[in-house]
Amino acid sequence: MDVIELSWWQLALAASMVVVLAGCTAVMRLGMSRSLLIAALRTVVQLALIGLVLEALFAAERLVWVSLMAVAMLLIAGREVMARQKRRLKGGWAFGIGTLSMFLSSFTVTVLTLTVIIGPDPWYRPQYAIPLLGMMLGNTMTGVALALDRLTDTAWQQRAVIENRLMLGQPWQEAIGDIRREAMRSGLMPMINAMAAAGVVSLPGMMTGQILAGTSPALAVKYQILVMFTITLGTGFGTLAAVAAGSRRLFDSRERLRLDRLAVPG
């Protein structure tokens, strides 16, 4: 199946419609026209730059460059996890816990998927490794950020309940157990919703992109099922690890609640 080429004037036409939308929001005084235009400009610049990087990466097909790209993606995702938390842990713990959780879950699942299930040659082939890791990190980042934010904010709001439970002799795991479970549910909910709605409410982005690029729908569906399962695994294990480490950090070695380890919202 031939793929229809897109010319610059066609992209410019789509961009002009975004400008029209920004104009409409300005007329309606929604206060979003500037943000909309800046976001659209960032989309163009960021995607153009990553297009150049991926062109070079695909041509080189070297493990060291793929690894450097993966580390850069992980560090940026770790920063985004920290930035989305209302009451994050002080001293780099929020960045460290989020980054380590995503590294353990996303990298492990991605490598297993590449080596055991898909099997490209070489196994780190950028065409498969970078998109798979990118989708994994993006979704795991959302799950970890939601879970840590729910954990720390709820612990702050229910500090009296937690301290009463500690005074009654409960270990810290039980004193904050229900809050940890709610935090894990928050982290997993987006992926459960995405899987439940796939195919009946929405067509996932990767599957849509493959079909537009000329791949047969049957093969696109197979890849989409694989991607959604691997993303769920990465998000799930990343969320569990982040909540376990984050909740432990809220207590000291004498099992006292240490909310002074949380940063004050700015």
TrEMBL record:
It is found in: Membrane. Keywords: Membrane, Transmembrane, Transmembrane helix. Its main location: membrane. It is a multi-pass membrane protein. The chain crosses the membrane at residues 6-28, 35-57, 63-81, 93-118, 130-148, 191-213, 225-246. It comes from the Bacteria. GO terms for cellular component: plasma membrane. Belongs to the UPF0014 family. PANTHER family: PROTEIN ALUMINUM SENSITIVE 3 (PTHR30028:SF0), UPF0014 INNER MEMBRANE PROTEIN YBBM-RELATED (PTHR30028). This is Iron export permease protein FetB. The lineage of its organism: Bacteria, Pseudomonadati, Pseudomonadota, Gammaproteobacteria, Oceanospirillales.
